[in-house]
Amino acid sequence: MGTTKRCLISRAEIARRVAELAERIGRDYAGRDLVMVGVLKGAFIFLADLVRALPFPVIVDFVRLKSYGAGTESAGEIHITKDVEESLKDRDVLIVEDIIDLGLTLDFLRQHLLSHRPRSLKICCLIDKQERREVEVPLDYVGFVVEQGFLVGYGLDCGEQSRTLPEIFVLEKK
Ligand code: IMP
Ligand code: MG
What we know:
By secondary structure, the chain is α/β, with parallel strands linked by helices.
């Protein structure tokens, strides 16, 4: 059985929401020294759009986490394959993630970054996929709430496919 892609969130809707998030973040962090930590690979496009919509420059760093195998199911175990390089101690840190599903990945990353003793730590997540949440994670900025489904595009992939599409699609069984 194959899959098809159905467009769920258009370029215009993404752009509008990113601008709104950037405005809120810009207000909340005005006059502060913000470090944004993007979660590779999925958040790279969202992060790139978000930082360019902010009213001030920020420091950007990345972590790379692996939680899923080649398909659409969680492998259940999370590994850091690339850690932050900036010192986070006493700094305001904002995690930028593509999507939260079970919550295991962001919970793990949050605990990890808290061990660096930042001044503050918040989370900005493009998509809050709510149906399968296992661990509650405090989300400070959310782009879109989606009940269920496997999403691709705008940085999100399925086995490395469809990551560079400019819209967000949901995979559907044919
Ligand atoms: P969690 O630990 O289940 O919250 O997993 C979140 C991670 O799984 C995200 O960082 C994504 O890399 C990946 N993921 C979860 N749902 C999707 C999806 O619908 N499309 C693409 N990747 C997803
Ligand atoms: Mg991810």
